[in-house]
Structure formats: C-alpha cells, structure tokens
C-alpha cells in the first residue's frame, strides 16, 4: 500500500479559527501530542505574523524529534528569513511558502500581474532552499486559478527546487469531482510532477473538505493537509480524524496507509478542543460525543448482538474506552501515578502531587473516577496559565422565586477580595461579582457546558469566550459544581488575558 503523508496544520490554519489563539506553551503541548499521534509533518505557525508565532515555531523546532517541522511564509524575503530562523534548530525542517495564482486574488488582493506572481514564486522558493532542504510551495486559491497559468507556476517552482507542491482549495469551492479532476490534470500537464510530493489542502465552506481531500488522494496526491477537529479559517479545514479514519476504514476502495496512531485520535481531539476553546459538535464524525452512541432500540439491539451491525469502526480504534472505571476514593498515590503513566503523562513530582490532590478532591465528590477524568486532571497539570486570580470560595443563593445572588472570595497575589452581586441567574451573578473584583469590562460572547464523563456526579467542564478591547480570549474550568466551574472558566479567561498582555510587553 502506498503511504499518504499526513500534514497537520492545527497550529497554523487551525489557530486561524475565530477565538482559537493559543499561548506558546499550549502550542507546544499540542505539538507533543501530535508527535504521539505520529503525524508526519507539523505546520507550527507563521513566524512573520507575530513574535508569539515565531517563538512557538522555534520552541517546537527545538524540542520535537520525529516529525518534519514546517513554518509558513508569504513569498517575501522577510517572511522566508523569519521562517528559516525560527526553524534553525529543527531535526527535520521545511519552509512552506505561498502566493495566490487566481485572477481574482492577483487583481484585487495582490495587485500583481501574472509575471510578477511567477517571479515572486520562483524567487521565494530559491531563497527558501538556502535555509532548508525541503521547500513546499502553495499556489493559493489554486482551485479557482487558470489551469495553464497554474501549471506554468508549478513547473517553474519545481525547476527551482520545490520538493512539495500543495494544491489549496482555499475557499472550499470545489466538489470531489472537479477537485479530483484538477489533481489528475496537473499530473497530465506538469512534466516531472512524479519527482515531487503532490499535496492537497481543502477548506470546508461547502462541507466537502474531507471528500475533496480523499478525491485528491485518489487522483494522485500523496500528502494531505488537515487539522484536528477540522478547525480553521471560516468553516475550517479537512478534519484529520475524518481523513485518516476514512482511509483506514475503506481500504477496499482506498489502498493507502498513513503513519497515524489512530488510538491517539480521541485524546488529541479533546486536547485541541480544550486548549483552543473550540467545542466539538456532538454529531461530529469520528470524535463527536454521539459518534458511537446508538439511540434507536433496534440499533442498540443490533450493536449488542454484533457491533459491526451499526459500527463501521470501533471506539477503541480511536482510543475511546468509554466507561472504564479506574480508581476510587481509596486509591493511593502509587496506583494513581502508575495509571497516569499508562495514560501517557510525564508529570514531575510537583505536578503529580498537585494532580493527586485534585484527584482526591474529585473522588470525594464523585463515587467513580474514570480515565477521562484522569486525562482531564493530567492535562490540567501539563500546562497551566499562571493564576493571577484564584477562586477561593463561592456561595450561591438561587431559585425561581428569588433574585439569584453570588458571594465569592478571590485571591490575587496574596491579597483577598470578597464581593457579592445579583444577576439574571447564579452564573450571571458570579460574573458580575468577578467583574467588580477585577475592574475589567468583559463581554461574554459564548458559554458552553459539557460533562467530562457520564453520570449525575460527572465533572462539568465550562468553556467561555469573552471579548475585550484587544480581541477575544477563551477560558475553561471544571468542577462537579457547575457554578464553580463557570466562575473558574471566567477567571481562567481573565488570567489568560493578563498572561497574553504580559507576554506582549516582555
Ligand atoms: O487555504 C490556503 O490557501 C492556505 C495556504 C496558505 C496554503 O492555507
Ligand atoms: Zn488554508
């Protein structure tokens, strides 16, 4: 079976999802998990776009060993220099440079002629070759470009040393029929295309990103660009888990293999959702919470008799072991540490101690602690935004006949603040009380709550998205008490904001 290279762009195109911006340490955390997932290439950022992106690319390049680390650069000398510099210490490195080739982009966005675009493309590739052995070139908006011009540009950049040619359906305009035909016609019209790796990069504006990527692979592409949970610009990118599981499930039709360890898919999906603050829709293919749930009695009966009746892949194949009871209130620190190791966490003694303390608190409130809970506790320790504001205490009085009131105590650098407020509900009251303590004016854009595991005593995880003058920030918090989880999520957003401002200033 031929191999399809999996190129993950969660940290670059995925991070372009509204509100999904990640701190450097969070990007590192996701990159480590992508290495465990065994993707072949990780696009780590766009170094010229901000100092934070530069730093994230540099740190990931320094630390990760196995995957190819790539960074995006416009076809501009200053961008390419920055990308080359950020990638300097990577074991395996690649610069991904791009310029638009469609008439609409060249005329209105770039205000450049075809000749100017062609020479910028070749100059960019030549320059990138001076920094790295692997150079990927993308003709942006390829799917809406004139075919003859597209072929001319591709041929020219291959002659100058491009090793990967990526064909983006930038605005998600294609259907599988025309996208497949485009990839096939490149094979027919560009000489020596077989010498380089042909790649596809599909956006999901018409909900066809996965189908288009598969059509591209069938037509000859051997690299597929995608993001975890399909996050990305506008409607997002082709979703990694969908593409990989489609290839794994339909080998009869698609005789290709990938290097991905599919049993890390669920874990990666959760981590990306948690750190970006972008929830996964319940009916999302492969990783949505309903993806393996059977509601109709006939279906449940069928699955109990033989899971293949209604399941085309198993939950275990994506690493979902639902409902596995692991530890209880009386479990000791040794058993806890061993379990965390088996779940893949490398916690130092402080982190392990803190996680164990949280586990005991949780086990006191919850009768049963599941793997999902432990993963949550482990992830909480692996990277924490420094907590400037810490919730010490929260008390709520609420009901359908009284004015909901929340009293809380918050600590900031050793100083204790106590406040109370009324609101439309207990959460609104808590947020008003927090606003009084911090003196910040935040606009709550989005609030979501989901349970980490099943059961009435489950950990509730709250994600919030708030708007401030400088942009958007997400926050999350968890507790068996959802009011407490809500307050923690709001404070987490505030702490992230402070952290972001401090980083900007440093
Ligand atoms: O969608 C797109 O065209 C891109 C390019 C930078 C590859 O993301
Ligand atoms: Zn894109």
Number of domains: 3
Strand content: 15-25%
With strands numbered from the N-terminus, the spatial order across the biggest sheet is 2-3-4-5-6-7-8-9
- Profile the largest sheet: 8 strands, parallel, barrel
CATH superfamily of the largest domain: Aldolase class I
Describe, in plain words, how this protein is organized in 3D.
The chain folds into 3 domains: 2-276, TIM Barrel (Alpha-Beta Barrel); 297-382, no CATH class; 389-505, 2-Layer Sandwich (Double Stranded RNA Binding Domain). The protein is α/β, with parallel strands linked by helices. It has an 8-stranded parallel β-barrel with strand order 2-3-4-5-6-7-8-9, surrounded by 8 helices. The mean pLDDT is 92. The longest helix is centred in the last third of the chain and has 24 residues, at 482-505. Strand 8 (197-202), helix 8 (209-218) and strand 9 (223-226) form a beta-alpha-beta unit. It is built from 16 helices and 18 strands. Helix 8 (209-218) crosses helix 9. The N and C termini lie far apart (50 Å). It is 41% helix and 21% strand. The chain binds 3-methyl-2-oxobutanoic acid (KIV) and zinc ion (ZN).
